[in-house]
Amino acid sequence: MSFQVKEPILVIGVGGVGSKLAIKAKDSLNSDYLLISNDEKDFSAENPSIHVSTKGVINPSVQLIRGSTYNVSDEIQSKIARYSTVILMSNLAGKAGSAIAPVVSEMCKDKGLVSFAIMPFKYEKDRIFNSGVSLKRIRENSECTVVLDNDSLLESNPDLSPKTCYDIANSAIIHVVESLGSSEISNETNILTTSKDGQNIEDSLRDSLKMLYGNAPPNSVKRSMLYVVGGNNIPVGIINSITNLTSGILNDSNSQIDMGSTSDESKVVMLSSIQGMTKFDNYDPLGMIPQEDTLDWSTPDCSIDCKLDLYQLE
């Protein structure tokens, strides 16, 4: 089943990366936007924003930022109240993204919520667990979740720098956002894959498929949308070739091609609907426990100052 985007639309950017994506996305959708972060440097005075204060703690934990987000929950809910569709942008490799995004997604779960989540590199070991926990909650709260894995992008292109990976990931996300009004997106978990710039279109498709199968087994891919960036500049014979190749791999009835982009560069951006396990389910060792068997599922892990006067008992 496809997700239906209804106006009015609000794009919410969480943290530094999410805020930058939200500002770009709102121009593409002609929508309103809201930035949320614990770091005031992530937005300027002219941006509609909500600051999550950690009360002077300059190196807050994910749990402290998350607990502080609940202190501004009424303000967040008042900002999102009148919108039919919310698009949530977050980088789960960052503290702000992994802390705030699950809380915001919980507030938006009764609306049409599309969540875009960026996952960390493998070497960011201290961020793997928190990103997995946050993604599980975001998926539960969202009608549609789009996940892009920085680590799989780097594995397919080991010569890339982290900054280049970030730029490629952000560009792929914005491309999907721009196409929301013209193409379908599944009401499930979707894996977003792409390739580095400067490749021919066949190599770009190969790297996109390699990235996809690094995130999920082939039999879990139920449907794929192939966005051919700069498709108007590519010979028809090559378009037919990659169409036949994609149909053979993914099943003819489950693959579609979108040629809507007018970019000068030529590359493939692939959005694949997944049913079943992904590599991200292993990021949280307890993630296999069903929600109904989790006693404290209703509220994610957070740190709060209860100001309790506890006395020693003798």
TrEMBL record:
Xref: SUPFAM superfamilies: Tubulin nucleotide-binding domain-like
Domain of life: Archaea
KW Lipoprotein (keyword) present: no
Keyword terms of this UniProt record: Cell cycle, Cell division, GTP-binding, Nucleotide-binding
Gene3D superfamilies the record matches: Tubulin/FtsZ, GTPase domain
Transmembrane segments: none
Listed GO MF terms: GTP binding; GTPase activity
One Pfam entry name: Tubulin
Cellular compartments per GO CC: cell division site; cytoplasm
Domain Tubulin/FtsZ GTPase: from-to ranges: 8-190
GO biological process: cell division
Keyword hit for Ligase: no
UniProt cross-references to PANTHER family, sorted A to Z: CELL DIVISION PROTEIN FTSZ-RELATED, MITOCHONDRIAL DIVISION PROTEIN FSZA
Name of the protein: Cell division protein FtsZ
Protein's organism: Nitrosopumilus ureiphilus
